[in-house]
Specification:
352 residues; 3 domains; binds adenosine-5'-triphosphate; nucleotide-binding; coiled coil; microtubule binding; cytoskeleton
Amino acid sequence: MIDELLLGYNCTTFAYGHTGTGKTYTMSGEMAEEFGLLSDNAGIIPRTLYTIFDQLKGRDSTVKCSFIELYNEALRDLLSDEEDTKLQLFESERNGTNGNVLVKGMQESYIGSPSAGLQLLQMGSRKRQVAATKCNDLSSRSHTIFTINVLTRTSNESVTSGKLNLVDLAGSENIQRSGAENKRAVEADQINQSLLTLGRVINALVDKSSHVPYRESKLTRLLQDSLGGRTKTCIIATVSPCQSSQEESVSTLDYAFRAKNIHNRPQMNSPVPKDTLLSELASEIENLKRNLIATRHRNGIYMTSDAHEEMIKENESRRIINEEQKQRIEALESGLQRKAEELLELLRQNRN
Ligand SMILES: Nc1ncnc2c1ncn2[C@@H]1O[C@H](COP(=O)(O)OP(=O)(O)OP(=O)(O)O)[C@@H](O)[C@H]1O
């Protein structure tokens, strides 16, 4: 998929399976890195970031990422600093036919290294809606899409653009078995609904139906181009080895088996003129400048939490040093006072 991405194709990989079967483990896994090395348990997204930068070595390119979640049919930007940035979907017209489904207002961050991409993944994952259910202590209650967009210079005048969507779907669940109640039951219902629509879309595509119900859920609208469209798509089906999950495992395998029969028509993106890229970069710089000014106005200067902690520690040790110096000065002053009084006494006695 990475080779196709760098050639200028749009690609999608998504993990589908019953709750607790390892979708998040497969897509993200362990996200921490040590001395620039990934853990053996790192998932597809961290490994993809490393491989992309490895393959781009020595090539003139830019990489940008976005990270969004779909929770209870609402789209949120997981990279935004704002508490709750709701996003909207819109369709771009392309030659009079249905075009790409785009997400309006989504933040796209340029990254210069795999570590920078990992930081975004970690930051967004912390914001993701997760909750404990009877089937999984950290169950993802939303679908997420981590997108990596790579622009590579092919000639002096043009740039190849490819996009890789890495999708971690929320798990389907049997509400009785998962013990979902109230808010959790509403979430589970929404998750099951969107996955049901995904199933219907897959069936309609396999049966070559005249109507494909993409518009029935935001999930299928987002994945429209990845299902029967111009994108290269790979589905990872996750199943549990437990015998008690047999029914769900059969249903997942059935889903994946049907999806295998969908025929996409991958098309390479047309090269982007270099000027378009330059003006995009210029507007990104403007955005960053505005963010910087806004941050300064609100909170003085921007500081990472590590630097902030360091500063607090430094201030505390300075305060302790100052306190000690003050006590030493006070002791010296009272010593001097005593000496002055003794001298005065001596002078008085001499005079007498
Ligand atoms: N291959 C694996 N090896 C070791 N541990 C795994 C593996 N797959 C999953 N796990 C563990 O199983 C648990 C559930 O996995 P995970 O959260 O990835 O499931 P999920 O399919 O994303 O669930 P949900 O749909 O509820 O979000 C986690 O504790 C995870 O670390």
